[in-house]
Each structure stands twice: as C-alpha cells, then as structure tokens.
Design a protein that fits this description.
364 residues, alpha/beta, disordered N terminus
Length: 364
C-alpha cells in the first residue's frame, strides 16, 4: 500500500495578514520604528529610509522549502547611518521579522532564526563575491500570543553550559547572539509604544489588529479600525491589503460577519471581488471544518458506545457464569432478562449471587 500523502496545511491567517500589511517598504519601516529599541534605531538611517531610498523589502525565499512552511518572515534591507573609514557607506543591515501567533511561545525559536541568518549570509556572499565582511543581521520576533513570551531570547540560554571555569571555556565555542522581542501580549508596554508611533499610525493600527483581532475587544475596536487603516487606499496594492484585513477579521474575530461584509462594500470594485472570493473560501472551510468536527464527534460517540456495549456484554457474561456456577442451570428466560438488564442491575446481581435461592431471584 502506498504511503498516505499528507494534506497541505492551510495558510496561517495571522501570518497572511502580517505579510500583506507590512510588505510595502513604508509599512515595513513603520514596523521597524515601533519594534526596534532606541539603540538599534540610532544605528539605522531611518530618515533616508522613510523617503523610500534606503529601505528594501527582500524576497524571503532564501529560507528554503523546509523552513518556509513553518514560519512567516519578512526580510528588510535598510541603510546604516555609519560609514566606513574613508567615507564609504557601510554594508546595509538586514533585519529578519518572524511573527509567532501561537498561544504558547516556542522555546527553540532562536535555533530556527539561526538557520535564517545563516542563509541570508550565504546569499549575501553569492551576490557580493568580493565582500570581505558580512553585514549585520538582526533577528526580530513579533509575538502576539495571549500570554507573554517566556522562552529565551539569547542563544546561550538554550545551551546546557556548566558553571565554573569549564563552562566559561565552552562558551567560546557556542554562538552567542540574541533577538529583538516585540511582545504584543505585553499589553501595557505595547499600548504605550503603539500610541507613540505618531509618524506611522497605520502600521501601529495593523499591529493593534494583530494583537486584538481574535479577542473580545475586537467587537468595539472594529468601529475605528477601517477608518484608521484608510490610508492604505492611496498606496500601491493598498485596497488589496484592506480586503485582506477584513478577511482576516472574518476568519479569526468575534465581530459579526454582516458588519465585516458591510465594511467591505466600501472597497474599490476589484478589492470587493477579492474579499468576496476569499470570504466564500473562508466560509466553505468553516463548514468543512464543522462537518469534520461533527464526523469526529460521531466517530468518538460510536467508539464510546462500542466501549460501553463491550463492557456491558462482559458484565452479562460474568453474571451468567457466576449464576451457572451457583445454580447449575439458568433458563433461557433468565438469561434473556440478564442480557437486557441495565448495568446497575447487573452489578446488584453479583452482590446477590451468594444469597439468592434461585437464578430468577437475581433480578427480583
């Protein structure tokens, strides 16, 4: 028999919206301005990048098929503020964004990011064979699970290094790097940083959507989200991004579907069609998921009924065997009554087996 083929995993709706919302250079830069710490922002020429001349969103397919299916990522190349001796521009820093949308974080996420960074450097050397140095690559985790991120953000914390002189010596051979963590689950710090993003409120709103779309507060926030994301209309592909935003809410949020569809009617015609097509697929997938859940419930109920029937049959056989040992003979009528008796009555028969004078008295 040929091996069963694994069904392809459906795209993660959180990842899909993230890529759509931040794939434009301006929005990617807005994400950087919000997520990066001040010390790192000072190293980057964000003013030049904000004009579009110093930022590029790169194709992330360098990751490879084995890793690409397990995480969403956005690769951004942005110019540095520093220059090399002699006035030559420094190599641009590359930033990897990977968004993790699970309720529990992944302890070994840094190991995955290590693979991403290595592949970026390999591609850099292929494209710049004359290079004598590698550009800095900064991993960034955008986390919006319900619980704050608890896993290590430094690689040394993942490695079992002993204490004492021996451990200090071993550390020389273990990579020591960390990542930038922007934790949307940390509501207090997130709100203050989003509110401070005056230069790009659209990117801040998109992050707020990622933070709250699947939570009860989305019902009230939905009244403000479409208007706050309105600037997308004037950007290349922005109407499609708005359609993706509404599809994302339709997929994950508690907002009523009719309200979302009503908001979609204000989109330009191509985006409306895009939304309606996606909405049909979402609803079809939901129906199929519901049917599959129903089938699984039915199978589970059948298994449970089978287990109960098996247990009941074993109990009937036990009572009949004890009755024949006690009374030598058991009539067909008594055997039929025992087979039809509920489990509690059969258990009482076992208690009476030594005191009953006749088999008929077991069910009296």
């Amino acid at each position: 028999m040929p091996p069963a083929t694994r069904k392809p995993r459906p795209p993660n709706p959180h990842d899909a919206f993230f890529r759509k919302a931040f794939s434009a250079p301006r929005r990617a830069l807005g994400l950087l301005r919000i997520a990066l710490p001040p010390e790192l922002r000072a190293e980057l020429d964000l003013d030049l990048a904000f004009d579009g001349a110093g930022v590029q969103v790169l194709d992330p397919t360098h990751i490879g098929p084995a890793l690409r299916g397990s995480a969403s990522d956005l690769v951004v190349q942005i110019t540095r503020r520093r220059v090399e001796p002699g006035g030559a521009p420094a190599s641009p820093a590359w930033v990897i964004f990977t968004i993790e949308h699970q309720t529990r974080d992944r302890r070994f996420m840094l190991l995955r990011l290590h693979h991403y960074v290595a592949r970026l450097w390999e591609r850099w050397l292929r494209e710049h064979p004359e290079a004598t140095h590698l550009p800095p690559v900064v991993p960034v985790i955008i986390h919006s699970g319900r619980r704050p991120w608890r896993s290590p953000t430094t690689f040394h914390a993942l490695v079992d290094l002993p204490s004492g002189p021996g451990g200090a010596w071993l550390r020389r051979f273990v990579p020591d790097y960390g990542c930038v963590l922007f934790d949307l689950a940390d509501a207090a710090s997130t709100v203050s940083r989003l509110q401070a993003a005056d230069d790009d409120p659209v990117s801040a709103t998109a992050l707020e959507v990622l933070q709250s779309a699947a939570r009860p507060e989305a019902v009230a926030l939905f009244d403000t989200w479409p208007k706050r994301l309105e600037p997308f209309r004037d950007e290349a592909g922005g109407a499609s991004t708005l359609a993706a935003f509404l599809c994302y809410l339709l997929y994950v949020s508690p907002v009523e579907g009719d309200r979302i569809i009503e908001a979609a009617e204000d989109l330009p015609p191509p985006a409306v069609e895009e939304f309606m097509t996606a909405a049909q697929k979402i609803r079809k997938a939901a129906r199929e998921e519901g049917r599959e859940e129903g089938r699984e419930e039915g199978r589970e109920e059948g298994r449970e009924e089978g287990r109960e029937a098996g247990e009941h049959g074993a109990l009937v056989a036990t009572v009949l065997r004890l009755a024949r040992l006690r009374f030598r003979e058991v009539s067909d009528d008594v055997a039929a009554r025992l087979a039809a008796a509920p489990t509690p009555d059969l258990q009482r028969c076992i208690d009476r087996i030594l005191t009953a004078e006749r088999a008929e008295d077991l069910l009296a």
